[in-house]
Design goal:
Chain B: InterPro entries: DHS-like_NAD/FAD-binding_dom (IPR029035), ETF_a/b_N (IPR014730), ETF_a/FixB (IPR001308), ETF_asu_C (IPR014731), ETF_asu_C_CS (IPR018206), Rossmann-like_a/b/a_fold (IPR014729). Chain B: This is Electron transfer flavoprotein subunit alpha/FixB family protein. Chain B: Keywords: Electron transport, FAD, Flavoprotein, Transport. The complex is a heterodimer of chains A (about 260) and B (about 325). With about 260 residues, chain A is α/β, with parallel strands linked by helices. Chain A has one domain: HUPs (Rossmann fold). Chain A is about 30% helix and about 30% strand. In chain A, strands 9-8-7-10-6-1-4-5-11 form a nine-stranded mixed beta sheet, with helices on both faces. A two-stranded antiparallel sheet of chain A has the order 2-3. In chain A, helix 2 links the parallel strand 4 and strand 5. The N and C termini of chain A lie far apart (about 65 Å). With about 325 residues, chain B is an alpha/beta fold. In chain B, helix 10 links the parallel strand 16 and strand 17. Chain B has eleven helices and 17 strands. Chain B has a nine-stranded mixed beta sheet, sandwiched between helices. Chain B folds into two domains: about 180 residues, HUPs (Rossmann fold, 3-Layer(aba) Sandwich), CATH 3.40.50; about 120 residues, TPP-binding domain (Rossmann fold), CATH 3.40.50.1220. The chains are: A alpha/beta (about 260), B alpha/beta (about 325). At the A-B interface, helix 3, helix 4, strand 7, strand 8 and strand 9 of A face helix 5, strand 7, strand 8, strand 9 and strand 12 of B. Strand 12 of chain A pairs antiparallel with strand 9 of chain B. Bound molecules: flavin-adenine dinucleotide. Flavin-adenine dinucleotide sits at the interface of chains B and A.
């Protein structure tokens, strides 16, 4: 049977805009321009490369969970070359933490059918970086996370993880969940052909009922953590800025000595 | 008194500094119980002594070859076994990519809430509070776990390490490894080369270079300054992508997150993704020839100038002062 790859992507607020909290201390997504998380573009890219290399009609599904706007993240994946999209949208999902989000993703991945799930290394707004591991746990399959290289051959996924202490080559039989880093290879730009073709590609919408999930298990109500307070970090006190007149290095040494760094 | 599990990060039995910071922090919440996962042959006497000296009342050790043969999940299995043995009031894990995954697996399996990358942990009437720095450190949040055992990962330099001698009673535990753990095999492992400099995430001082450094050879300027201060070397993604410095030294959103006492950025513009990894540094110094560079908005002390003249002069002056 040909390989079924599901890529999990997130629609995130643009990092160059102002990001803030809403009154309920969830991330404010109103009036904020969003896009497919740049870190998930690497995941779409690797999924497409694996599908192309397999050459047996492998199928790539782009999956996202999020409000209506999040559909754009799926659309971007389709323009890049994925075959189909799944958008899980449900009011009750708003404010989910990693446990809620991973539950929804796990059910959706199962419903879509998969041999390999590909995720980005982290979202650009939350940056916990643990969703792929939790998703693998929920699916009960092997996890190979934070890979800078990945390939699939004969039902075995293999990848390189550049850890803190060592670079390791890891291997597991499918099914598996992998996450890829921004070192894995530049994501392609959609071609004109890709953009045209994407318009005809199927995107299905599911809600929590379709996935058999109780609304109380996700969202703010189902979160296992709570944010009690969020405060803008006080602007750093206006620092001293000096223009180098030939003594800039020595003056800086003086500053560091005063602060006991030397 | 409540017990707090601390996951011990060590290299061949040498306990890393962030773990000792966690043992110190854990004492705010209860009695620290250190969990040490090791290879069958690791000598753990120095680790045990160090952990006891800093406040660990109990030290649980699990020895197994699986930790080297299979990544991440095997460690989560063992940590879970240790937690079942203790029934802790909280679990603290050092915030490395691996530490966060181990913590997350423990949390999902035990139905517990997870908070990552805390910069401080406090005790409140309603359990531990994690102080986190979010959106490229432009916001500070205070969060709690509302279900299960609070599982919290804590960033390096969150607390000073303080000696607090405790009993450090050692117990050996057995772990049973899950199918998911052994499903992933380590085919080969290439240890990182030692640089002789402090570990980037743990260092008290970090000296970083960016695109302005202009080439791999010029990083010698950054290294010389770092060595004069006993600092670690960091790099922006632009410098890493250009191949001038290894990715393991990248500071920022997709690299390492650092919060040293002193961060010196040279030839770095201060893009939001770079700031995400260094904005919690206590003192920030910038050297940039463009007076408009955003890095100056963060800097406690900035020099508008050419790094090729400022840095050698600075390094020379530091070395003179030390002599
Ligand atoms: C998803 C994503 C993740 C990212 N993750 C990271 C990350 O983890 N870390 C990271 O750093 N970036 C990251 N980036 C990239 C980031 O957006 C910037 O492109 C990058 O930080 C720029 O690096 P730089 O400051 O060295 O280069 P530039 O922005 O080009 O700045 C170079 C600076 O050097 C100065 N300069 C030049 N010559 C000299 C001289 N002779 N003397 C003094 N100053 C000089 C210039 O004035 C300029 O300000 C990420 C981007 C994305 C989209």
């Amino acid at each position: 049977m040909s390989l079924r790859i599901v890529v999990c992507v997130k629609y995130v607020p643009d990092a160059s805009g102002d990001r803030r909290f809403a009154e309920d201390l969830t991330v404010d997504r109103e009036d904020v321009d969003g896009l497919l998380s740049e870190l998930d573009e690497y995941a779409v890219e690797q999924a497409l490369r694996i599908a192309e290399a397999s050459g047996d009609g492998a199928e790539v599904t782009v999956l996202t969970v999020g409000p209506e706007d999040a559909r754009e993240a799926v659309a971007k994946g389709l323009r890049m070359g994925a075959d189909r999209g799944v958008h899980v949208e449900d009011e009750a999902v708003h404010g989910s933490d990693v446990m809620g989000t991973s539950l929804v993703l796990a059910r959706a991945v199962e419903k879509a059918g998969f041999d390999l799930v590909v995720c980005g290394m982290a979202s650009t707004d939350g940056v916990m970086g643990v969703l792929p591991a939790v998703l693998a746990e929920r699916l009960g399959v092997a996890q190979l996370t934070l890979l800078s290289e990945v390939s699939v051959d004969g039902g075995v996924v293999r990848g390189r993880r550049d850890g803190d202490r060592a670079a390791e080559v890891l291997e597991a039989s499918l099914p598996a969940v992998v996450s890829v880093t921004d070192q894995s290879g530049e994501a392609r730009y959609p071609s004109f052909k890709g953009i045209m073709a994407a318009k005809k590609k199927p995107v299905v919408s599911w809600d929590l009922d379709d996935l058999g999930i109780d609304g109380g298990d996700v969202g703010v109500a189902g979160a296992w953590t709570v944010v009690d307070a969020a405060a803008g970090r006080p602007a750093r006190g206006a620092g001293v800025v000096v223009t180098d007149d030939g003594e800039g290095g020595r003056q800086l040494a003086g500053y560091l000595a005063e602060r006991k760094f030397i | 008194m409540a017990e707090v599990v601390v996951y011990v990060d060590h290299v061949d039995g040498a306990v890393r500094k962030p773990t000792l910071e966690l043992v110190t922090l854990a004492q705010r919440l209860g009695e620290p119980v250190a969990v040490v996962l090791a290879a069958p042959g690791d000598g753990l006497d120095p680790a045990v002594a160090l952990l006891a000296e800093h406040g660990a009342t109990r030290i649980l050790t699990v020895r197994a070859g699986e930790f080297a043969a299979h990544p991440v999940v095997a460690r989560a299995d063992a940590l879970q076994a240790a937690c079942a043995h203790v029934t802790p009031a909280a679990v603290l894990v050092p915030s490395s990519p691996e530490g966060k995954e181990i913590a997350a697996l423990l949390a999902v399996r035990t139905g517990s809430g997870l908070l990552t990358d805390a910069v401080d942990v406090e005790n409140s009437g309603e359990g531990p509070v994690a102080v986190q720095s979010v959106f490229a450190a432009s916001f500070t949040t205070r969060s709690r776990v509302t279900r299960g055992i609070p599982v919290i990962t804590v960033k390096p330099n969150a607390a000073p390490v303080e000696p607090a001698p405790a009993a450090g009673v050692v117990e050996e535990l057995e772990a049973v490894f899950s199918e998911r753990a052994t499903a992933v095999r380590v085919v080969s492992s290439t240890p990182r080369e030692a640089t002789g400099r402090p570990e980037l995430t743990e260092a008290a001082i970090v000296v970083s270079g960016g695109r302005g450094v202009g080439g791999a050879d010029n990083f010698a300027l950054i290294e010389a300054l770092a060595d004069s201060l006993g600092a670690a070397v960091g790099a922006s993604r632009a410098a890493v992508d250009a191949g001038w410095y290894p990715h393991s030294h990248q500071v920022g959103q997709t690299g390492k997150s650092v919060s040293p006492q002193l961060y010196i950025a040279s030839g770095i513009s201060g893009a939001i993704q770079h700031r995400a990894g260094m904005q919690t540094s206590k003192t920030i110094v910038a050297v940039n020839k463009d007076a408009e560079a955003p890095i100056f908005d963060l800097a406690d002390y900035g020099v508008v100038g050419d790094l090729f003249t400022v840095l050698p002069q600075l390094t020379e002056e530091i070395n003179n002062r030390k002599a």
